[in-house]
Structure formats: structure tokens, C-alpha cells
Amino acid sequence: MRVREKGDRGVVQSVVLFLGVSVLSGALAAGLAIPFAGLAGFTTEKTSTTLQDLPQQFDEVPVKQKSVILAADGSVIATLAEQNRTPVKLAQVAPIMQKAIVAIEDDRFYEHGALDLKGTLRALLQNQSAGSVQQGGSSITQQYVKISLVEKAKTPEEVAAATADNYQRKVAELRYAIAVEKQYSKQEILEKYLNLANFGDGAWGIQAAAQHYFSVNASQLTLPQAAMLAGLVKNPTGYDPTNNAKRAKDRRDVVIKRMLELHVISVAQANSALKTPVIDPAKVRPNKLGCANGKYPFYCEYVVAQLEDNPAFGKTKTDRANYLKTAGLTIKTSLDPKTQAAAQHSIDIHSKPTDQSIAAITIVEPGTGLVKAMVQSKPYGGKKNQTSYNYNVEKSYPGGYGGFQNGSTMKAFTIAAAIQKGIPLTYKINSPNTLDLRDTKFQTCNGTTRDPSYQPSNSTNNVPDPTMIQAAQKSTNTYFLLLSQKIGLCPIAKIAASLGLYDAQTGDAQTAKPLEQVASMTLGVGYVTPLQLSSAYAAFAARGMYCTPWLVTSIKDAAGKSVTTRGADCKQALAPEVADGVNAVLHQVMQKGGTGSKLNFGKSDLAGKTGTITANKAVWYAGYSSKLAAASVVADASLPYKNLIGQTLNGKKMYDASGSGTAGPLWMTAMQGALKDYPTTHFVAPSDKIQRGDVKSLPFVNGMNPDDAANKLRQAGFDVAIASGTVNSDETAGTVAYTDPRQRDGAPEGSLVTIYVSNGNNKNQPNKPQNTTKPPGGPTTINPNCPPWNPKYPNCGGRGHG
User: Fold this and answer.
1) Nearest CA to 42 among 22, 56, 24, 27?
2) Contact 176/145 with Cβ under 8 angstroms?
3) Domain-by-domain residue ranges, the chain?
4) How many angstroms separate the CA atoms of 703 and 722, rounded?
5) 638-653 pLDDT, tens digit each
6) For residue range 688-719, what is the model confidence (pLDDT) as tens digits?
7) Sheet holding 719-722, edge to edge
8) Which fold has domain 691-786?
9) CA–CA separation, 408 vs 415, rounded Å?
């Protein structure tokens, strides 16, 4: 019985409460517009049931807060938001603003409870005499409830229910208002209301409104500014000063006069405020939301795409996108504005948006993977000479172009595979200008591959029997094709994959197809991006440490608490000494005689490699110091792809297209600017073993019959050629004078050993070696104390020569 009595008493109290406010009848029933008959037939029983069903507590809606994306120095890259809002404490709102909003919206706010009976009756009488709604009777608390219910709505139907013009919504709204008044103080309610209210023109909440219209914080608002903002909440669109300054001023003046009537301000203050212009257009800040309106839209969109793929932010991509726009996150990224500016400067002076070709550059930090800069020649947008394609990233990301064929930049991975196999840096191969490789077998990871019509040629002037260093300097195609045939394509493919290369047209790092193992692999294969290639070359700079590109360095939630994010994701993909060898070879590309020699600058060691694809449809330069690595590309990005020669770059028709002369200057200008504040750095010199290769002892054959010596060498695991003609030697005429490489130096197993026959003439200087009877050639070795790449040893044949 006791429980029933208590329950009955609760119903009675609810009914009494309702009847108390229902003195206002039609006012409560339909937004003060329906006459008293509006509640006819609404029985006490129905009233008690309705009120009994309503919650006794109001669940506060989480305020949707904008998220910001920051550069590494803390500057804002972009703002992500459904509503441009920055919540503030009431203490951060100017007192005059608090007074203005109370004066015009609910001047008895601090005197009444959830419902202002006096204010509502006044509004009701005004509306009844006018025959339409002229005044609202809702208190600030009721307005806060209404805005909150709309904010909570997730579907159009829920929004309609939250704004329906019927008695059920009004009763529910009032009940919630009563709960709010019990839960919070007046100051707390006012704070919540000011942070939630719509102030028009995309500004939500008082702080965003103050910054948008006046370029000040809410704490700095003056009387005329506060009056204008207070007047906006009644009709944010109609009184928007950016749309209709006169209507906005008229409404502002109403607020000022009301404040004067209530003795909130003096006559002098009112007169001064009334004379003040409603806004200064020069101080209105556009609400630039989203990456498209940020400083670096392509980089920003790539960051957002990666975040939207993170399941930690929601079950679905839609959930994650909504979370990023409403959670008030502070997302710090790797982008360095100084490095970005250097790269952008290079793009600006070497290309134009109106060019037929495109240019792009990505710069990363070796040893961390931090993506420092990402620029391109076509700006973001949908107009002529603009694009939404990001030419620096993979196709799996919305907007990613998916890369270009990488040309001879692929030779760096062949060099790494050869050094890893123990091939010396001075390994020589007879490299004719054209090779007949029709149906020649190349070993792959799963068998062999061949091309029935492959007859490649060199595209540059080259040394007839170059070392690996000389071949890299001249980018000798036939050398690297024969080298890749010797070591096999599988080691090259594995190294490329371990350094983050995959076909960027087919997916991301987890889903994409690996680079195809074909006969021409070392000359370029598949489609790679500047981001991939700069990150791969950065691994050489970091002595074999490959780091996955790293863009988001930290995330903090709205309360300033750190959100777990990944740090640097690095692995030792190559042995340090192998990377040292690659650096020694590619360093010589940028020295005298190399294709990149004109791109060398400063005192730091630099290394790099050119790349040109078939028919000059794309040209590359990838290079690095130990501090930064970058890849630049100039390409045709419009189907059907055509030769760059004849297209425009920097507003001029191209009569030549090359990695060194076309993409190289973009790389050089960007890196010069990016590296100017870094200290001088040098690469680690390769070890004696790396320079000499993984050598095997050669049997001593000097003085033997050449044919017997050849058999002995073959039995030891070497290939053999006998040079034509004879040379000066102490040995008996017709016997072996010496071999190349020399017996004391050894040679990699399976390499070519050339036998030179003595003429019996004892001279200090032997004859120059003659043509061999076997054209492929073989290795030569060096004195282990005489590294040929190092300028400290001038008697070793000079820089870049064995």
C-alpha cells in the first residue's frame, strides 16, 4: 500500500505540475500560437500517463566540437567539423555578452524556474492580440533543451520530432527543462546554452561566433558586438550581418535598447553602441572547414583518409568520419612548414598549373619515416588547371593517383641485391649499347621469365666495360640487365618489397600486388609513387633502416588526453654495410661524370639516381642526404599518356626530357631549401669486404699452359676467358702472365676470370689487356687498402673509377 500511495502521489504531483503550467493552455500546447481550445479533450488521465512516461533526468548531449589538424610546429593545417564550434567556460565569455543574451532572450532568467509564467503570459497575450506568433515564451533553459534535442537527433525523422509543433513536444520539452534546472545551476545552463546556440553563417557557440564575425575571443566582446550576437539567436539566417547588414543592425539596436530599458547599460553606452557599425567586413573570418579549405589540402586529405581507415575511431568509415568531425581532436602531423615551403618554392619556379605535364615531390626523414613535405604543380580544386588527384600517393586512397613507372630509379635496388650477393663495387661487365635478350631466362622467385622480343639498348653514352659504379654513373641499361640476370630477379624484388615498393595502382601496402618480376625489371616496373620512392631511398640514407611513411604523430581528445597512435614503424630491411655500399655507388652518380653531377650542392654527402621510362612519359630523380630523402617526378598524367617531349613544363615546350635535366632541378631546389638549416653530414664509408665483394680464393695459374689454367679455374667455380694477343711479363712466352682479377685479390664465385698470355718480354708495364674471347666480361678487384670511390686515395684511379 505504501508503495502505491507513493506512486499515486507522484502521479498527482505530475498532474498538479502540468495543470499549474496549463493555466497557459494554448500557449503550452502549440508554441503560443494555438488558442486555449488547443488542450480540449486532453484528459487528466492522459496527462498523468504522458508525464509519468517522461524521464526524470535530462541526459546532456555531447557538444559537437571541431577537430584540428596541426603541422609539426603547431600551426593549423585544417579544421574538421560538422559545426564550427569551440566550447568555452562561462568565465571566458565577456560579462556584457552574458547580460546581452539574458536581456533579449530571458530577462527574468535568474528569477524563475524552468518556465517563466510571467514572460509566457506576456508573450501569449501579445500573440493572441496579433493573431500570430510575435514573441516567444520559452526560457533560456527551454531553448537549451530544444537545441540539445535537435543535436541528439541522428535522422531526419528524429529532427522532425525534436522540432514538431505539437503539445507532446512542448510538454516533453518542459519536463526536460525542469530536470535541467534541478541538475545544473543557472550559470551552468547559460554556459551550455551559449556553447550550443547557432549564431549563423556557420558559427556555432559563442567563441566561434566571436572569432568569425569580429576576429576576437568571446572574452573580448564589446557591447555593440555582444548585442549583435545576442540578436542573432532568434533568427541566425535572417539577421546574419554578412547577408543583410541593415537587418542585422536593426536587430542589434533592438537588443541595445532592451538592455537600456532593463538598466543593464547607461544611456551614454547605448548611444555609443548604436552609432557603431554592425561589423567590419575586413575582420570577418571565413569558416574554412575541411581539408579543401586548408593550407595543404592534398597532404591533409591523405591524413584524413588514413584516420578514417583506423577502426579505433568507429566501426564503419561513416562512423569514423563523423567522429573526426565532432570529437574535438587535436591531430598533430609530421608536415614541416619550412620543408613544405622549400618544396613548394621548387614547384613554383620549375612548373606552372597550366602545364600539360605535372610535377610532384615528396620529402621524408630517414630513420623515422616522417613525411615532411608533399607538393604538386596542379592545385586542389575542380576548376580548369586544378585537380583533386594527389600525384604523390597510392590509388587505394580516394583521390590518390597511383604513381608512375619508376624507370632507372629501380637500379638502386639491383645494386643493393648485387652487394648483398657479394658482388664488388668494381665488378665489370662488358656492356654493349644493344643486347639481344630474346628468350633469355631470368630467374624469379617462382621459376624463370623470358621476353621473346627483348632487345634493349643504352640511352646514355657509357664505358664499354664499366664497373658497377661507372654503370650507375652513366645509368648503363645493358650493364644492369646483365647484372640482374646474374643475381636473379628474386633478390631485387624482395629488397624492393622490404623497402615499401609495390604496385600503387592495385592497393595499399597490405593489399597491393608486388612489383612484377620481368626481364626489364631493373629498368623500371609497375607503378610507384613519390611517397614510396622517397621512403625507399630514405632506407639507404638510414643505413638499411626502412620506416613506413609516418604522418600522424599524436592525437589528443577534447579534454587534452592523449589518444594512442602508432609511433615510428621501422625495421632493419638491409644490413647497414649493404646500404653503405649503395650509398657509395649512388654518391658517385652525383660526382663528376655522373648523370646527377649538375644536381650536387653544399658540403654534405648526397646520393641519387635518375629515372626515365619508355617514350619519356615520366622522368624521375630520387636522392638523399643522411637527413632528408626526396623523390621528384615530371609526367604525363592525362590519358592517353604521351611523350613529355613537346609538352609544356613551366610554360615552355620541352625539347628534351630526362631524370637529370627535367625532374632533377625540382629535386635540387627543394632539397637545397629543405637542408639549409641542417648540419653537414657524410655517409659511412663501405667496409673493405663490401668494396671487394664476397671473394673466393683464385688458384695460382701464372706460368701454366693457358688451356690447363682455364680448366683449373673452371674446376674452382669460375667462368674463364682468354684474352687475345699477348702481354709483357716475366713468365715464359705462351704461358699465363696473370689473371684479371689477380690471384692475390680473389673473385666472387662464378665470376669471369680473364687469362692474359705472356710474350716473354720482361717490362715493368704490361700491355693493355686485349679483347677477350668471351664477350660477357668479368670482375676486376682492387687493393683492399685503396677504395676507388674515396677521394682520400688519389692514386687509386680517381673518384668513380676502378
Assistant:
1) 22
2) yes
3) 84-283, 691-786
4) 14
5) 989 999 999 999 999 9
6) 989 988 888 899 999 999 999 999 999 999 98
7) 719-722, 752-757, 736-740
8) Trypsin Inhibitor V; Chain A (3.30.10)
9) 11
